[in-house]
Amino acid sequence: MPPLELTNGVKKRTVIYKTLKVSTKKIEMASIEDIEKCLKEVKKATTFITRGRRYVTVEVRFASEDEAIKHSTDAIKTGCCNYLLRNPYQIGGLGHIVELDESMMCKRKYNRNRMPLERWVIGGWDREDKNGFLVFVPDRSSETLLPLIKKFIKPGTTIYSDCWSAYNGITEIDVTQKYTHFKVNHSENFVDPITNVHTNSVECYWKNVKRRFKSKMEVHTDMVESYLDEFFW
C-alpha cells in the first residue's frame, strides 16, 4: 500500500471533470480523441488522463498542485472541440445568500420482497446569481453534508436552512472566511416572523427538478444521477 503522503499528494494534483457537448449543452460521453483535443492547451501540465469512475467524468492528473488549482475551476475547451470539460463550480460568496435543503429525489424498487432505496439529494440555491447545485448523498449526517457545503459554497456566504441537526456545524466549517448561518423552523413557520429567513427559493428549485425528470426517473431509475447532472449543468 502506498504511503499516505504520496496518496494525498496525488489527490491534490487530480481534478475530475465532466464532459458537456457544446452543440446540445447536454452531458454526454466524449471519445478519447475529443477529450485529448479539449486538453491540448494544458497537456504539458498534465501527467495522466483517464475516464472517471462515474458517468461522463474524466480524471486529469496535473504535474503540480498549483497547476491543479489553476485549472480546477475552469472550463477547458478549444475552438475545434465539440466538448468542454468542467469541474463542479461553487456558488455564493460575500453578500450572497444561499438557501440549503435536502430532499428525497426518488425511491428505487428492487423487487416486491425488498424495501425501496431512498435517494437523498442536497441542493443549494444562490438568490443573487440565480443558480444552484444538486448532489446525491448516501445519508443526511453532518459528516456527509458539511464537507459538501464547503465544496460547493464559497467562503463568506450567508446560508439559510431549516433546523435539520446536521446543519448545526456550518459556522464551524474550516474555510478562509466563516459562513453566516440562519435557520427557519418549518414545524412553526415557513418564513421566520423575526428574521424573515425562508428557504422558498430552493424548494421551488426542487419542484422544477422533480417536474422535469419525473417521467425519466420512473422509467430509468439507474440513470437518475446522470439526469440530475444534466439539470445541474
TrEMBL record:
**Segments forming domain ISXO2-like transposase:** 90-233
One Pfam assignment: DDE_Tnp_IS1595
The record's section on SMART domains has: DDE_Tnp_IS1595 (SM01126)
UniProt xrefs under InterPro entries: IS1016-like_transposase, Tnp_ISXO2-like
Listed NCBIfam families: transpos_IS1595
Q: Which PANTHER family match?
A: DDE_TNP_IS1595 DOMAIN-CONTAINING PROTEIN (PTHR47163), SI:DKEY-17M8.2 (PTHR47163:SF2)
Protein's name in the database? ISXO2-like transposase domain-containing protein
Which organism does this record belong to? Octopus bimaculoides
